[in-house]
Amino acid sequence: MGIQQTLADNLHVVLPLVLALVFVLYKIRPSTGLRSLPLPPGPKPHWLLGNVLDMPKEYPWVRFREWTDTYGDVVFLHLPMQPTILVGTAKAAFDLLEKRSHLYSDRTETVMDKLMYWDWDFGFLGYNAKWRRHRKLFHQHFAPTVISKYHPIQIQQARGYIRRMLSNLNPTAPVDEIRLTFAAVILKVTYGMNVTSMNDEYIKWAQKALEGISEAKVPGAYWIEFFPWFKWIPSWVPGASFRKLADQYRPYTEKMVHYPFETVRKDNGVEIPSVVYSLIKEARETFSDRKDQEDMELAARDTMGVAYAAGFDTTTAAGQGFILGMAMNPEFQRKAQAELEAVVGPKRLPDFSDYESLPCCRAIVLESMRWLPVTPFAIPHKLIQDDEYNGYLIPKGTTVIPNSWAMLHNPEDYPDPERFLPERFLTKDGKLNPEVRDPTTFSFGYGRRICPGRFLSNDSLFIVVASTLHCFNIEAACDKDGKPADLNAASQMMSGFLSGPTAVPCVFKPRSEAAIKLVQDTANESW
């Protein structure tokens, strides 16, 4: 407490000294063979502070694109103890993060991750043995060759979703119900747990934990990342908002990670069919030593915690985009419904056997992932050794921020990018067009750090899209005076590390009496 108080009382003296030291250390950094090359261009740094004051706090991806337009594919930012480049084009992203993924797969360790109890997430782990172990565990259960075993759960939850929408046709229902649907899938798959309401504590914990990390991970939002020594400053000191944020959200992250896992773990052999149960069972059957068992169980806890967290917002944001986009593009909505009528018919609901025969629905999934990406600037990578790109030096330890939003809104790849146009992914004869760049190559990350849960996410979104459009028309909601909601305003993205539409003012209207009966009959199904 004495050290904390001393730092707080003398912050006006300490800060300039630290900044001066950082500047000197940066200038005398060791030279290598590549260090004679110039750094990539970027905004002019301020003395001592570099580009810290230039870092945008709101909608950073927009400013990042402006810098790309001004300075080029790769933009250098002078940040204290954390040199950073912005990667603003698909070509540069693939050249660096895909073709040289062995160099660009590390992560920058952040103070906020530790303070908010997010350093367990293997998406944030460094490129090391622990990360490889966690990813291997994850891949065993979510690889494309095995995820079909989760199709019954995904169908069950999609049908629960359309039943709830049939009985709850109000403008706020789409947001809550789509989130509940995807949360229910991931909780059932990972922990074997059933959730039926947005008031469920598991959902509340995850929402609050993700709300916190969304604010904390905006590049440059908290100076503590540049001056980690200040983490000892108490929350009441002016400028210590990072501490308040961590104190506010850390309890929710801890509950999200520990409680569902311990619930399964403490059942002592009572089977709860789930990934976590199978991993715990494997640990107890494989190792006789209790410490080895616990190590594997903790790896299972952290690995499945990633599924729990990532399964909420990634797919939820795309699901909200699908609803909003369909209301904004009624012509394509009708085209997809005609396809469903021809392939599925009026007497049943779609399932995964229809996947290949429903290119319109698959195009909607692709456009939903492109239009309003949940991670507009992805999780930053870190370079493990000096590298050269287009005649410029990228120094070892550089943080690499891919501007996924800019790539997904590049008019050369996606003409009229601000509009929701699934037809862009189809050929004239109605098949998926392989010449259009797949947006999931941006929206799920890059190289060796690409999200391994993307296959489960895409399947969940597909079955919700197909089930919904087979039974409902999606329209803009109207106010009490009968005026339709402004969907263009609603489609503006929320600011933060995690994003999505600001609102989804839409209503579902049953397409026919036959559709109503199809939905109602799902209550009698067993899975």
From TrEMBL:
Its cofactor is heme. Pathway: Secondary metabolite biosynthesis. Signal peptide: none annotated. The keyword Lipid metabolism does not apply. Keywords: Heme, Iron, Membrane, Metal-binding, Monooxygenase, Oxidoreductase, Transmembrane, Transmembrane helix. It comes from the Eukaryota. It is a single-pass membrane protein. InterPro entries: Cyt_P450, Cyt_P450_CS, Cyt_P450_E_grp-I, Cyt_P450_sf, Cytochrome_P450_fung. It is found in: Membrane. The chain crosses the membrane at residues 7-26. It holds the Pfam family p450. Coiled coil: none annotated. Belongs to the cytochrome P450 family. This is Cytochrome P450.
